[in-house]
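EI: anyone free to look at a 264-residue chain?
SC: sure, send it
EI:
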Amino acid sequence: MSEDFQEVWEDLVGIPADPPAMRELCETCTRPKLVCWCSYLPATPLVTKCRIVILQHPAEEKRCLRTVPMLSLGLAQGLCHVFKGKKFPHQRHKGLEDLMCAPNSVLLYPSPHSVDLSDLPKLSAGGYDSYNLFLLDGTWPQAKAIYHSSPLLHTMKQVKLLTTGTSEYVIRTQPTEGCLSTLETAALALTILENREDIREILLKPLKALCDFQLDHGAVTHQSKEFLIKTRTYPKLIGKRLSRLLKGVSSNSDESGAHNCEEV
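SC: here you go
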């Protein structure tokens, strides 16, 4: 047995057989307790007149940094419903079809038929005690896929948020400057519909805390994809420019080599 092999073998033997100890997790938010945001939730879950209905893409549930749990825990019981899937409604989605067909249900989605949420009649003026506000939770391509594969969504009254603000979710890249996380969208929509400025402030506290925790532990602030493309710093653009540069270097090298051969 060679000396190098013996050394490698001893290193392998020294690796502990037991898995490393896992960090203790919070039972409520399932985050590590050192970076738990539960203390930033309202002491008493927020009671609103409107209900939020989340149609969540299955892939979104697997993300470690999500905002829907903050919304579910921040609102009183029964005011935030989450249905998972790629197409809605499904047989397993008990009661969802009735909610989608209710006259006071609206879908927050920027289709050509959407109207500004601010133009939606306020509760008393609209003749409703509450609205069921539907949101699609996932990346923009996933949200579009859900919309196009769910014909019943197309029959719903559709609204959109017109905002010039930027997202507080600075540790995740947004598609455009005006895009908001699911939590931010719901909080802003509830603030507008119920004319209560405190709703947005209360519901966003855990998100701000999460971002601060991540930034303190090495995360960096993310600009939107739109901003990165405009400033030509989007990774895919950098890749294309690098590819063109390398091709140029390769071509120059080939030409240089040819000249050298001729000289020899």
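EI: Residues 249-264 have pLDDT under 50 and may be disordered.
SC: 👍
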